[in-house]
Amino acid sequence: MTEANTVDATLRALLADVLGLGEARAAALTEDSGLFGELPEFDSMAVATVLTEMEDRLGILIDDDEVDGEIFETYGNLLAFSLRKVTD
Amino acid sequence: MSEHRLRIDPAGTPRATVLIVPPLFEEANRTRRTLVLAMRALAAEGFAAMLPDLPGQNESLVPLEQIDLARWQDALAEVAAGIDGPTLVASVRGGVLIDHQVKAAAWWRLAPVGGVSLLRTLMRARVSADREAGLTSSLESLQEEAKAQPLLVAGNRLSPEMVAQLGTSEAQAVEPLRNVGLGADGIAGTPLWLRAEPGEDAAMAKAIAADISAWSTTCGIS
């Protein structure tokens, strides 16, 4: 498995855990799938939980000023942000 | 004031009492249903199971802003002191930060988490909510604010002492201890404590009860 695939799988599992999506819905997320504002479960507490779990599971540190509304707009944005952090 | 304690008794004399130390803050609500199902399963295996309210949590009348981790540690030790027969402590997530003052025959900890991680998530929820409201805050500004006055994070008003203690709190060594996580080597289930909307998992509850029961036997408690 390439690193990108690993990050993608980790991120889907994490969203499934936090949002209770179930494996099928998590697997069906595409680059354009909307997250914050689109999924009713995705509130500010869920955003916070996702960030902390990303740090734990991807072994990264995320600063406040890196987090803006944009990265949670779509699954593609969140994946791109994660890949950037992992390869930093 | 004594806090509410949910207690489920087995038929006949209990093998031992399992004292459940719940996760902290919102994670307690997300896991409560499944933990109570685990308590029922424990009772079916001959254990008494007790889930006490921590002061400032659940049905407690004490304002959370008067509470810190030290107070929770004392409260649990007091609850345990009133239990007849052997006690086995079963702590989940942040519960592991407050379970070491209890006099117990054994400890069992599920998915332990450090205080820093819990605090970080709570503060981030506040930063995220502030951002939606057009306000600017940061983890640093909230840390600063929390030094002098209670800090409202994700619906919890945390005292300066609570914030300071969470910032350095780790699970303390206890003996004998079984640390267990989720997955093939541990409990089969999903991390319900992370779930945005509370769920329940009956199979996971059964697995929790079976694991605690086996650990009790290993420790020679019953």
Q: What are its keywords?
A:
heterodimer, A: 88 residues, Non-ribosomal Peptide Synthetase Peptidyl Carrier Protein, Chain A, 4 helices, 0% strand, B: 222 residues, alpha/beta, two-stranded antiparallel sheet, 16% strand
Describe the structure.
The complex is a heterodimer of chains A (88) and B (222). By secondary structure, chain A is mostly helical. Chain A has helices at 3-19, 22-27, 44-58, 75-87. Chain A has a single domain (3-87), classed as Orthogonal Bundle (Non-ribosomal Peptide Synthetase Peptidyl Carrier Protein, Chain A). The longest helix of chain A has 17 residues, at 3-19. The two termini of chain A are 19 Å apart. Chain B is of the alpha/beta class and 222 residues long. In chain B, strands 1-3-2-4-5-8 form a six-stranded mixed beta sheet, with helices on both faces. A two-stranded antiparallel sheet of chain B has the order 6-7. In chain B, helix 1 links the parallel strand 2 (17-21) and strand 3. Chain B is built from six helices and eight strands; from the N terminus they run ββαβαββααββαβα. Chain B is globular, with a radius of gyration of 18 Å.
